[in-house]
Inverse folding.
């Protein structure tokens, strides 16, 4: 308590100058927000207890919280996009393990994007109120790029399934082939629904996978590209 009181008494001018910076802050893009939040957090770290000290001043708490939330959310999406786009299917891994890794990554992507979409309208309105850029939240922004990355993940999944199917030749292995084929088609349609379609390369791989269903009883319905 003594240290907090000391900060309140001696850091008033410093805090007020930061408050003015926050109120006046305007941003051209979300990267500017990330940089500003990084700078602000470094400045506030000089206080012994940020919350305890700032409550004694006219601090723009709501805008600060919105800036931090936007910066952290955007950085999380960037990390997610990087994970999806940089994913490499290790051919040395057993097929089952490789497919599980891709399935797990897709689940993380879906959960993050769907959680964002559920509150996007409300979040967008809140960010606009504080002059925070929101283009990255749109389907043509970072969200759209993550969806495109999921399409590439589906392509790798289908390629792995197709490769494994070619290796599973023989009547005695037909049940395994059918199960694997069903896995591949289900994954493909899940991504197709999530992303809103496939690109030309992924459609080509999907059609190759679909053509292998001629030996099954239930052929896959056609998928449309984007």
């Amino acid at each position: 308590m003594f240290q907090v009181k000391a900060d309140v008494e001696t850091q008033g001018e410093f805090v007020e100058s930061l408050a003015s910076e926050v109120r006046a802050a305007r941003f051209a893009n979300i990267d500017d927000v990330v940089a500003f939040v990084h700078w602000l957090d470094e400045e506030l770290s000089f206080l012994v207890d940020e919350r305890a000290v700032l409550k004694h001043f006219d601090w723009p708490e709501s805008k600060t919280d919105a800036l931090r939330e936007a910066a952290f959310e955007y950085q999380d999406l960037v990390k997610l996009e990087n994970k999806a786009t940089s994913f490499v299917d290790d051919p040395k891994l057993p097929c089952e393990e490789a497919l599980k890794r891709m399935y797990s990554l897709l689940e993380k992507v879906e959960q993050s994007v769907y959680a964002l979409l559920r509150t996007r309208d409300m979040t967008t309105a809140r960010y606009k109120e504080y002059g925070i850029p929101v283009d990255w939240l749109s389907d043509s922004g970072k969200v759209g790029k993550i969806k495109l990355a999921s399409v590439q993940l589906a392509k790798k999944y289908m390629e792995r399934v197709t490769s494994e199917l070619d290796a599973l030749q023989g009547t005695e292995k037909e049940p395994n082939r059918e199960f694997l084929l069903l896995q591949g088609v289900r994954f493909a349609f899940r991504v197709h629904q999530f992303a809103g379609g496939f690109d030309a390369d992924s459609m080509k791989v999907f059609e190759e996978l679909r053509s292998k269903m001629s030996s099954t009883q239930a052929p896959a319905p056609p998928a449309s590209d984007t």
Observations:
- The first helix runs from residue 2 to 10.
- Residues 88-226 form one domain.
- The mean pLDDT is 87.
